[in-house]
């Protein structure tokens, strides 16, 4: 075998093969490092690939894990615990995608959706690793978030030596990665530019796909059109990105594409996943609703052996990422080392239920039989099992006026609450919020958050929902309690007209204990700081509305604004 260096990680000695060059079929070479035990023999390999830079991932050997709100938390150190991987007798292969880090080639557009398919590169890399004398031919993959998405993209290409994958916190529907309910989310800016504690992409040759396919004249017209959105025009970073996209190419492309469609869907891992037949373990923690949604959607598409593990709140795991390794190594012990440890005898779906802190298992999602029941918004900020009987002339709408954050730092919130629950009340699944609302502009955001509030005032976020008012159209996938919006066009609102807006409430699992209340909060901007936001990186918020808007929320006999929530059958009967 080739020579290797040794490094110390505490009391552990680790062999490392630095800057290996892996040839791609088009002649470009990718750079990887390989870490393994000092005994010179072949082992199964776990591959971690991203655009964040392999040298950043090496900090896992020297940086103790940090959790939010630590200022040392860096969201891009996601390749896993190198020392633990080596201790478990695997080769940890960490590398740079083309156009980034020490690799060659160019990355055109987010996830190279305008260039060489990333799955093609990953296929070539996996097969190269399998042929190396230090690998025994059994290959898996490792890593959270971006690294998790790359696993799905790789598996869809069916490289012969990729035996299984373990995906934690991946991003699947690329439109929903950035536009939640049509509302722009800033977290992808951090991953691409490096802001709010994230190192971001290790740029070497990354290019805007929009700039590749449009002439300068066409692009200027498109930029001018995008700047006519008052939300975009009021936000300094977005104006700067649109006027000066150099070194912000990927974020520029996202800002320029605010509608769903081919630009996002052509490389959507959910679509590609129909080709996957190897074993897949999907793991995600509650509190990052859009990724919980994506993991469930992916689980339902997969045809081979599969697991879905929905863990506990809060959502932001340590960086360097070390969580879930025990589960991962059980998975790979079975599929890469051939040890029958019983993991495939266990139920396919495992869900942590907040409140009761129980783990519910089943063969499908949701893991229990559910019944959708409405909770109605009522006067005096109440949530009730019964609808309002008074007409609009007596049940006057709740209202709030939100000034743009350019002139205020106060986010207005209107809320409704149940009475304290008398019995443990369990909800598991996806929900919906039906709001009959009138606004005095042609657009706004609806941001809804559901909380479990204890008798002492302590509270925990249960789930969220987002909807840009102009994206209110529903498509034919919509069912009771499970709405879908196509987001393929924006339909301005007629000011002064009452419209029904249906928000998708992301999947969740929670039991409300006796004495606890369910509180729902509605705003059009996110609170600047609260118990949930403090757990998130500074850039994990949504684009505020850039104009003053008055909102009226009707909840009378003719306008039955309500939540539609997934009560498990047992507790639905108890609360009947």
Please provide a written account of the structure.
- It is a single chain.
- The chain has 16 helices and 26 strands.
- α3 packs across α4.
- The radius of gyration is 24 Å and the shape is globular.
- It folds into two domains: 5-174 and 189-205 and 270-346, Alpha/Beta hydrolase fold, catalytic domain (Rossmann fold); 370-574, Jelly Rolls (Sandwich).
- The mean pLDDT is 93.
- It has 576 residues and is of the alpha+beta class.
Q: Short summary of the structure?
A:
With 576 residues, the protein is an alpha+beta fold. It folds into two domains: 5-174 and 189-205 and 270-346, 3-Layer(aba) Sandwich (Rossmann fold), CATH 3.40.50.1820; 370-574, Galactose-binding domain-like (Jelly Rolls).
List keywords for this structure.
6-stranded mixed sheet; globular; 7-stranded antiparallel sheet; single chain; 26 strands; 2 domains; Xaa-Pro dipeptidyl-peptidase C-terminal domain-containing protein; CocE/Ser_esterase; 576 residues; hydrolase; Jelly Rolls; AB_hydrolase_fold; alpha+beta
Helix and strand arrangement:
Elements: E1 5-9, E2 12-23, E3 29-36, E4 43-50, H1 54-57, H2 82-87, E5 91-96, E6 107-108, H3 118-130, E7 135-141, H4 146-155, E8 165-168, H5 174-178, E9 179-180, E10 183-184, H6 187-193, E11 206-207, H7 209-213, H8 216-226, H9 230-233, H10 236-243, H11 249-256, H12 262-265, H13 269-272, E12 280-285, H14 289-301, E13 306-311, H15 325-335, E14 349-353, E15 358-362, E16 370-378, E17 382-384, E18 398-402, E19 414-417, E20 425-439, E21 445-453, E22 459-468, E23 499-512, E24 517-523, E25 549-554, E26 562-568, H16 569-574
Parallel strand pairs: 4-5, 4-7, 6-11, 8-12, 12-13, 13-14
Antiparallel strand pairs: 1-2, 2-3, 3-5, 9-10, 14-15, 16-17, 16-26, 18-25, 19-24, 20-23, 20-25, 20-26, 21-22, 21-24
Helix pairs in contact: 3-4
Protein name: Xaa-Pro dipeptidyl-peptidase C-terminal domain-containing protein
Keywords: Hydrolase
GO molecular function, one term: dipeptidyl-peptidase activity
